Amino acid sequence: MKKLIGAAVIILLWNACKFNEQKTLPIAGNRDAVTETVDGKTVTDTVYQTIPAFKFVNQYGDSITNKTLDGNIYVADFFFTTCPSICPIMHRNMLTVYNAFKDVADVKIISHTIDPQHDSVAVLKKYADKLGIAGSKWWLLQGKKEDTYKLAASYLVSSPQVDAKEKYVHDGYFILIDKQKRIRGQYDGTVPEQVTKLIEDIKTLKAEPDQTTAK
Amino acid sequence: MKLKVISGICLLLAIFLYSCQSEDELEFSRYYSAGNVIYQSKCMNCHGKNGEGLSALIPPLTDSVYLKVHKDSLSCFIKYGLKGKITLANKTFEGEMPANDFAPIEIAEVLTYVTNSFGNKMGTITSQHVGDDLQKCK
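The joint structure predicted for all components is written out below.
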């Protein structure tokens, strides 16, 4: 009985905390104050760092650009199909994200291969099939290596390094991008609790006013 | 008098059996817990916390029948890696497992862990057994 009361108190407290919780996510990256003259008035706006334009090919051989992702919240990560270390954990966890938003139209997942030489479109398609993903929720993207590495930098993750034993070393981060292409969160994709938080954060983000109105 | 002798022998036998068994058990738990540590650092990323594998990319370690049938090859799989088509848990896998530079005792430990976790129950795989199996790797 005592235990029960204890549990009830904890739940109550936790809910109380939740009630006070901020309902928007922070915005990461550099920001600039830009002063412009609009209609003869001076206005100052905060301009946040955004993900630059890119162009890659997905596992179906379709061209995917930053424009293709317009109107979507998306999660990005970096991997390669022959990665022996952290990628299996990352994609086991990403499958949880995939399943959580399977039927939600404006949430997508993109995984950039950092080994495009090996990971051709055919290899990526096979990997996707084996992973058990289909449709257009989760794209595996490949393109020029320099482009991918440069893009990694704009997601604020460290640039992949070549390593004799592991072939490549890279971060296991999942990066959350909003419809304005701003970085809204980074999560360690190898830690299940962080991935649970990512799923919660996507729901919070989806409810923000400038996400529901963005096209 | 007779009774005393008989009960004495019985007692001895019981002690003998008991100590024997606990010796085995001790060995098992030594192997098992060392194997758990190796599993977490060298295998878990691919095969998962509960040996669940990853879709059709990485096989699970929960197919007891497969493990039993391949008991004598498991050491070779761990030491030299595994490649090519295999069928287990009602699925076909065609992946590649990297080789591990393990001593026989480490292989024995991790195999004892794997074959007695995730619903498997195969008992201790000794370092002796591993040594013998490694001689026969193809």
